[in-house]
Amino acid sequence: MLKGIISISGKPGLFRLLSRGKNSLIVESLQTGKRTPTYPYEKVISLADISIYTNDGGDQPLPQVMEKVKALAEGKSIDVKAFANDAAIREYFGKALPEFDEERVYTTDIKKLFSWYNQLIAAGVTEFEEPSQEEPVEAPESEEKAEE
Question: How far is it, in rounded angstroms, from Cα 102 to Cα 82?
Fold first, then answer.
């Protein structure tokens, strides 16, 4: 679940949101476990709020894209340095999300997504989407009725 995972501009890595203060957020690094405050002047964004441009005119939410990448990578981390060039990275990403907009999604964006994916897998975060909130199915009432 990416809802509580954030990225902070100017700080490397990803963070888990722990609590909110008056003028700051308390976050914990996924890599080191170190807790630090963030301040209003820092740009903070939840990974659940990010999306990838697609050719059909819409966007694909990052949690769904991460699930597709996880399925393609079989739940293992991705070695970005193993790719020969940018075209190979884009081709691999195209297997996970074939409808991504090749003009508006840059190779650096894909590398960042793979980096985040690897950090999440290393931190033990393997579920990226919120569990569906389906209503429980009620058992049918028994056919026997109490006589009055």
Answer: 21
